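Blackboard transcription, Thursday session:
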Amino acid sequence: RKEVEQDPGPFNVPEGATVAFNCTYSNSASQSFFWYRQDCRKEPKLLMSVYSSGNEDGRFTAQLNRASQYISLLIRDSKLSDSATYLCVVITDKLIFGTGTRLQVFP
Amino acid sequence: DTEVTQTPKHLVMGMTNKKSLKCEQHMGHRAMYWYKQKAKKPPELMFVYSYEKLSINESVPSRFSPECPNSSLLNLHLHALQPEDSALYLCASSQAFPQRLAGGTYEQYFGPGTRLTVT
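(Written on the board underneath:)
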């Protein structure tokens, strides 16, 4: 089993839709979690940290489920500009990137 | 300011050339990273510097040689590369590195990358 796994997608959704991605991790000692977005041929950009109590930033909500060892990212009211690859990062004593989930929002 | 800069943006080099990639940050971060990214794959960690000392080398071939002259700068020296080394090379920094347990946060900020082509 990979240390960090994501559904590669692509997720094709219409504008205005709500979409959710999960990222599962295998090491129960994982301590910090992040979501990044990466546009084609660009660098990853930090989207949000994931806190134990869950956190929200505008249309984006991140949650952590330690019991089931996954984090999630919910995007509400999808915009065309949300089209990108979404990468999770899990930290134990090292940083591990997930393989990324491709989101395509269409008009 | 969460800016990490990298130069050059693009680099084409032959297999016998020697070149260097440069990275700079002025956020006071004490951890700096080199990643390699191939198309449609996630970034792959190569090296980590923490407090200007090499903390992690992910079994990277010796034709890649990192250097951290000071807390703001990170270089990657390239020599005798192979065509399969062509990729996007990303630099990142964070306040702290997890293994240090010295406090600080681990959010990484990435530079725009150097797109390297080895001919």
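Lecturer's comment: Chain B touches chain A through 20 residues (CB under 8 Å).
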